[in-house]
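Box S2. Input/output pair 1.
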Amino acid sequence: MIDNDTLVVFVLAALVLLITPGPAVIYIVARSLSQGTLAGFIATLGMHVGTLVHVAAAAYGVSRLLMASALAFNIVKYLGAAYLIYLGVRSFLSKNEAVISKSRTRKHLLIIFRESIVVNVLNPKTALFFFAFLPQFVDTTNEMSVSMQIWVLGLIFILVGIVSDGLYAVFAGALGDRFKQAGLHYGKYITGTVFTSLGVATALARR
């Protein structure tokens, strides 16, 4: 088993990293502002299903491919950037989220969940982050295998992330409700601008 001291340090380090605003947090906040707290929670869950994919990649060494190959890294990076820009453009062209009928709400939330997974899976820097971060807390002399230790640490990271990102969703959702009460129906423009900006930033980011 992983010793308690290592787990405490890992949770603290993970918390610091998670509460620092990055692409995932910005995505969740944008969804919460434009479509409410529930949409933010769904985006949070989708993001961390995507995180689960990266944990698996780190555990089984797939991340080494992105670390070693500039071509593989760039392919994933540009796919992710293109997807974010596509989401941004689609948001600009869509009808205001405030007029979505109740009969479409469930389907719409499923779309957000799916999009969040894709956004995080297509983020190569997330894969590199886990490849570099998780092994720092792995003990090669432990009776537990390295891959199992990475899985345990990865799942803990995801649980902490769901809590921290969920809090972002709550606060952003409450702020979004105030905007709507004030008659400011600019949700799709906020979302579109954020997604397009993230896509451009991802495309320009260096390896």
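Box S3. Input/output pair 2.
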Amino acid sequence: MSTNEAAAVGGILGASIMMVAMIGIVMFVLTVIARWKIFTKAGEEGWKSIIPIYSDYVEWKLSWTNMTMFWVSLGLIIGGYLIGTISGTFAVTAQSSSAAAGGGFVGILSSVLVLAGAVIMLIQKFKLFKAFGKGAGWFVAWIFFNNIVTLVLGFGSAQYQGPQD
């Protein structure tokens, strides 16, 4: 391959990477704006949608009257990650190959805790759609096209109806 061909391939690759990055940045900004809009539709201040963890807490309040489940979900996920991280660190120190690979009871426990927390979070997202008068189809669409569904919920005609426990 000549120098000119290599430069052309590098230029095409660089342009492709820049295009994907630009699309990603635009989608991120649009999703932030859409979440802001969702919060304001529900009577919350929009700035609450851009603060990590607090925005999740507020979203839970919009969709679920049982706030205990927020703390349970957060605890399961953090606990699962901590158990997995600590067990991995100690396993490497002890030079146990099976434990270092994340196997054994502790690895399974860590995975189950994170999975249980994630399932509760998915239930919360379903409840958010119900709070805006949307059904299971919206939830399924969100699983596959979350940014697009968030945009449509934020900028569409959906009206906040409150938690539908």
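Caption for Box S3: The chain has a mean pLDDT of 88. The two ends are 65 Å apart (CA to CA).
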